[in-house]
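Problem 12. The chain below contains 161 residues. Write out its predicted structure in token notation.
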Amino acid sequence: MPSFDIVSKTDVHEVDNALNSVTREIVQRFDFKGSKCSVERKENEITVLADDDLKLKQMHELLRVHLTRRKLDAGALEFKTPEKASGNTLRQTILIKQGIDKDLAKTLVKEIKNSKLKVQAAIQGDELRVTGKKIDDLQDTIALVKGLKIEQPLQYLNFRD
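Solution.
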């Protein structure tokens, strides 16, 4: 029976490359001269340190630009609220979304069932498996999910006959 998986994965090595590019640009840019701005990653969490709110916004923009240059979706980032750090600086944590959480998976299953396509969707951990008898139905399901307004980037893998 034909099937495919809906997953949400972000390549962490490409994120590292984008962060290295952001760091190089911070060192070279004139408006960041003498500032204590920095970006670092641990696991699936990016920590941004900036002098003030303006520099924090500029670093967000740099991060988005360099991620898109690396063909990564900036929607994979979840920005937390900035907090005060030592020396009048701001610290913000940004989470890298990996996997489909339960709420989004339930929403996707509900939308697929409401579409009246002859497919079955099953939640398997942080993935979603869609099976059906016809490949055309599976392709219509992919088109349906792409048409939904979901901020998190989704990939469609393991398309099998």
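Discussion. The CA atoms of residues 109 and 121 lie 6 Å apart. Students who got a different answer should revisit the alignment rule from Section 12.3.
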